[in-house]
# Entry
Amino acid sequence: MTTPDSVPPLPVRGSIPDDARPNADQAAGAKPTGVLVLADGTVLWGRGLGAEGDAVGEVCFNTSMTGYQEILTDPSYSGQIITFTFPHVGNVGTNFEDIESVGPGACGLILRADITEPSSWRAASHLDAWAKQRGLIGLAGVDTRRLTRLIRAAGAPNGIIAHNAAGVFDLDALKAKAKAFPGLEGLDLAKQVFCRQTYTWDETLWSLGGGYGRQDNAQFHIVAIDYGVKRNILRCLANTGARVTVVPGDTSAEAVLALGPDGVFLSNGPGDPAATGEYAVPVIKALIETGKPVFGICLGHQMLALALGARTVKMKQGHRGANHPVKDKTTGKVEITSQNHGFVVLPETLPANAEETHVSLFDGTNEGLRMLDRPVFSVQYHPEASPGPEDSHYLFDRFIALVKSHA
Ligand SMILES: NC(=O)CC[C@H](N)C(=O)O
# Structure
């Protein structure tokens, strides 16, 4: 058992006065009650928060300045420990509304500053208590800049996060667990997070007008295949005015068609698209063949590409943040987008009857595609923008327009 007496002080620029430091009162002297151990043996001490115990996963970083509750509850983050690069996380507490799922999301969170008392009229509880309730393990007081640079240099490492109030850790055992984690490549995590039963969804999004004036679309039916869907995507779909039914990710094409969809939606989700694609791709292929409009987001985009015969690969560090510029090649417009993906479609592997429609202005990687001979399109990023900028909401209008014209 190895534990230092105190959390090493964080490097803070000399020009910042002591009392202006985020954790001036707590940074030094406190006994570490949490630790992150990477598979290569790197150890970062901190103060544990949320649930006690340990959780293994891929360590990634998200650069969003707001929206931590949506991020932590996004099922696409299953199997991942999130490092927040923004130093102050938790200061508006948590509430009952800003969640993307009630099921599993991220398995750990790493913060720079300790969480302050929540300050918001919407706050129902402290992030620490909320994380505990969700069984989510966290760590504060970590030099998140150093960790982010480490991830940028070497790619997202596997690691284990541990919280023990008594400050007792078996580092060798933790390292062994981190090393034993196989990594996200080849992992079908969607099956752990998608719904088990078909249900209907009718909550709309008030910031988009709550579906007002779209009563005409009530005759249309969208069936959303859930691979780990975010609630705000379902709100955006319901906002089109159409009826929305959600089915589990392993539903057969026959069962989807038996519901009489006018359009099919392929959701976001965690893990490797190639692994989930083993059962999802044949279904997507069959649905494309029917000529019905299909719209995919993130994992849904990646598996649609696989269904077209294209390839996906793991990215080095991935895209996770709320300020990613994307160019819509069909209009020439640039939109600022919310993103969360660690795999990406190789556009050069798309077949002749499909084309790349969107591209990342950060690194030129693929952000969207469409078929040229079918009403089928998808994007890699998150147009539902939860959290993040709402520039891309137009894609839900594109989808309902396609549904209308093909009904
Ligand atoms: N948000 C998502 O749907 C993520 C898709 C996939 N799991 C990835 O990491 O690339």
Q: What stands out?
A: The pocket of glutamine is lined by residues 76, 268-271, 298-299, 340-343 (CB under 6 Å).
